[in-house]
Design goal:
CATH topology: Rossmann fold
Order of helices and strands: EHEHHHEHEHHEH
CATH architecture: 3-Layer(aba) Sandwich
Number of helices: 8
Strand content: 5-15%
Radius of gyration: 16 Å
CATH superfamily: P-loop containing nucleotide triphosphate hydrolases
Helix content: 40-55%
Structural class: alpha/beta
CATH class: Alpha Beta
Number of domains: 1
Distance between the termini: 24 Å
Length: about 180
Amino acid sequence: MKCISIWGFMGAGKSTVGRALARTYAWKWLDSDTEIEKQEQLKIPDIFKRYGEEYFRQLETRFLENLWNRMQSEPQASEWLVLTTGGGMPLREENRQWLKKLGISIYLHVPFDTIAKRLNRRDSQRPLWDGSQLEVMRRKYEARLPSYRQADVVMEVQGKSVEEIVQELGALVLKPPADV
């Protein structure tokens, strides 16, 4: 099994794109936050409130370790897995190493102003988003950029439809290897 991990700031469209990519190509799809919620039997905001961010980051690392072990025990080389990550997962060096070990990493880059509009439009249940503190959130976004940019592919998605992004990702992943 091969893995495509999709990274980005909250509101970048990771889950929407990941779900559409998996559906389009009949690949498996996992969302790390959803899987952690099932495991802990708590919603992400409740995990943050009850145990704190550091505990949650440890859960993310454990999730990646378990996923790696599962993929090694079920090596179906022709299958792809699309993994959408929480926005903070790639911040830890250890997690970035796991994500790269799992396969191809894609960072969906969306400008901060677009993300702020998206998240302020919704009734956001995100534990780290505070729309009343836009400059604080902008600094958080900018602080995460160096980690995000360590993905194998940085994809500019501003102004593109989900379908266009899925087509680009599919072409990228399915292209034949270059002649050596």
